[in-house]
Specification:
This protein has about 575 residues and is of the alpha/beta class. Helices cover about 35% and strands about 15% of the residues. Among the domains are: about 70 residues, Alpha-Beta Plaits (2-Layer Sandwich), CATH 3.30.70; about 250 residues, Fe-only Hydrogenase (Larger Subunit), Chain L, domain 3 (3-Layer(aba) Sandwich). The strands form five sheets. Strands 2-1-5-3-4 form a five-stranded mixed beta sheet. The chain has a four-stranded parallel beta sheet with strand order 11-10-13-14, with helices on both faces. It is globular. The N and C termini lie far apart (about 50 Å).
Length: about 575
């Protein structure tokens, strides 16, 4: 690789010619301010905050896009460059709502931090400010165009990582706005509710639709029995909201915090994950025996499911009919558990604690309601929302003792914990399906071929005499690659795991904004969260879903057997082709 000898702030260094000025500066500990830049997205160069002076050039250069060359001399700090950056930030601030103290991102806003670091202390430019109505038609995502800084991060993540292309910049000049086509509402667009636009937004132009107030009201209602259950990815990330290192397991503390918030019972969504595996493995075995509707496509990610309904409706027959672990457990809480406890299901209020804002959409799907018309899951809070609730209640999370989940729906195997990371559903399914197919116990439970998936991975797994072709994809641009192969008949797959979010649920749209030194979508932070889940799995005495004693008891007492009529009635669902509802 060819190197260039350059000078940055009079310090000589040799760096690859492929490097940008920004990247080169960081090798010697200089962090040039930036706003539109994101290391996992294409270079935009729109905000101009990262400008630097280059000797011999009569204009400032954007350090995020300008590549180094031999002999280049760069100034990242000078009175002129600092003033120019401050002017740019002042112009952005002066067209921004004056709502910092009441904004959801107060204290965790990149624009706020940038204004502080650049010394912006006054609003200098009075005049007309952009005005847009709050767009809250979506069940999952709120769009506030008044807080948009036109960095286009949301546009890029939606197109480049998710392959949806739902967002773009409309109009020109002062009237420019980021929106779905024709300024349609998010609910009327092809938005899949993944929430990655929320994750990468540097301000509060995109936020999840909050469910916290309805939960406070439920907790205060003496007539309701209020239950929470937490997804596997929560325990690997919630600590970040309390300044713990990424990947710190916090299962027991989270259970204790939920009880202190006033929940009457706290269960583990992992129980639903174990149940999903038993039902899905049974479904896979039947399809293999009949050689029909292969490959089996997993159905645990509601963002991926809506993506399929919009863009690949012809593949709906291939999708597993299993409900997601959240919906399986919530359904059992208002049927099996309600019956055992003698509580009217309509007096049970179920809250899912999820890393995913698409879950807020999932609970409103007509297919996910009870025959009587009430939802099985009443509310969903993201990891971020739960962190806020804990802080609002004055709970010192880091000093909480650990406590266990309630029973019978709080016990899970190690396989269930893997649902939180990409490849985990596949690995958990293989542990059970392999034993069903061969009739022999597995001696090696770790399927390394489907681990550490950065975007896309294919493998052939030998199960007895059967060679299973499998694939794992996260981020829907990667899913498209696999699905196009399926449509073209290029390869005979048997099982495909698809997750909407990069890294799987650990990179979900409702996870904590990362601590300093990390970006959202950073593979390194997702690896740390995934490692926590693999360690939890490894430490458990039972690591195969079909060996969960409470699952076995559930079938004995209530469901009879995997794939039974009652199991299908309660634990399985259907999907429908979708088109955008209309335009403004």
């Amino acid at each position: 690789m060819k190197h260039a000898n350059i000078y940055i702030d009079n310090e000589k260094l040799s760096v690859p010619e492929s490097m940008t000025i920004m990247e080169a500066a960081e090798t010697i500990g200089i962090r040039i301010p930036r706003l539109c830049y994101h290391p996992q997205l294409s270079i935009e160069g729109a905000c101009r905050v990262c400008i630097v002076q280059v000797e011999g050039s009569n204009k400032y250069m954007t350090s995020c896009s300008a590549k180094v060359w031999e002999g280049m001399r760069v100034k990242t700090n000078s009175p002129e460059i600092r003033q120019a950056r401050r002017d740019i930030v002042e112009l952005i601030i002066d067209n921004h709502p004056m709502e910092c103290q009441t904004c959801e991102r107060d204290g965790n806003c990149e624009l706020q931090n940038l204004a502080y670091s650049q010394g912006v202390r006054d609003r200098l430019f009075e005049g007309k400010r952009k005005l847009h109505p709050l767009e809250s038609s979506s069940a999952s995502v709120i769009r506030n165009a008044e807080k948009c800084v036109l960095c286009r991060r949301c546009v890029r993540v939606c197109a480049e990582i998710q392959g949806i292309h739902n967002l773009s910049q409309l109009h020109r000049g002062f009237n420019t706005v980021v929106s779905p086509a024709f300024e349609a509402g998010m609910a009327d667009s092809v938005c899949i509710n993944c929430g990655q636009c929320i994750n990468v937004c540097p301000t509060a132009a995109f936020l999840e639709k909050p469910h916290t107030e309805r939960i406070w009201r439920a907790l205060e209602n003496p007539d309701l029995f209020v239950i929470a259950h937490i997804a596997p990815a929560i325990r690997a990330a919630i600590g970040e909201g309390f300044n713990l290192p990424p990947g710190t397991p916090c299962t027991g503390q989270t259970v204790t915090a939920l009880r202190r918030l006033g929940f009457d019972a706290v269960f583990d969504t992992n129980f639903g994950a174990d149940l999903t595996i038993v039902e899905e493995a049974n479904e896979l075995v039947h399809r293999l025996e009949k050689n029909e509707n292969l490959p089996l496509l997993t159905s645990c990610s509601p963002g991926w499911i809506k993506f399929m309904e919009h863009f690949y409706p012809e593949l709906i027959p291939h999708a597993s009919t299993c409900k997601s672990p959240m919906q399986m457990l919530s359904t059992l809480l208002k049927t099996y558990y309600a019956e055992k406890k003698g509580i009217d299901p309509q007096n049970i209020y179920v809250v899912g604690v999820m890393p995913c804002v698409a879950k807020k959409f999932e609970i409103e799907r007509p297919e996910q309601q009870s025959p009587e018309g009430y939802p099985y899951t009443d509310a969903v809070v993201t990891t971020r929302e739960l962190i806020w609730m804990i802080k609002a209640y004055g709970i010192d999370f880091t000093r909480l003792p650990e406590s266990d989940f309630d029973h019978p729906l709080g016990y899970s195997t190690g396989a269930a914990d893997l649902f939180g990371t990409t490849g985990g559903v596949m690995e958990a399914a293989l542990r059970t399906a392999a034993e069903k197919l061969t009739g022999k116990p597995l001696t090696e439970l770790n399927f390394e071929d489907v681990r550490q998936v950065e975007g896309l991975k294919e493998a052939t797994i030998q199960v007895g005499k059967l060679s299973l072709n499998v694939a794992v994809a996260n981020g829907l641009t990667n899913a498209k690659i696999i699905l196009e192969k399926v449509k073209a008949g290029e390869k005979q797959y048997h099982l495909i795991e698809l997750m909407a979010c990069p890294g799987g649920c650990i990179g979900g749209g409702g996870q904590p904004y990362p601590p300093d030194g990390y970006y959202v979508l950073d593979p390194e932070i997702n690896k740390l969260r995934a490692k926590a889940l693999y360690n939890i799995d490894q430490a458990k005495s039972i690591r195969k879903s079909h060996e969960n004693p409470y699952i076995l008891k559930l079938y004995e007492e209530f469901l009879k057997e995997p794939g039974s009529h009652k199991a299908h009635e309660l634990l399985h669902t259907t999907y429908t082709p979708r088109e955008p509802k209309g335009i403004k």
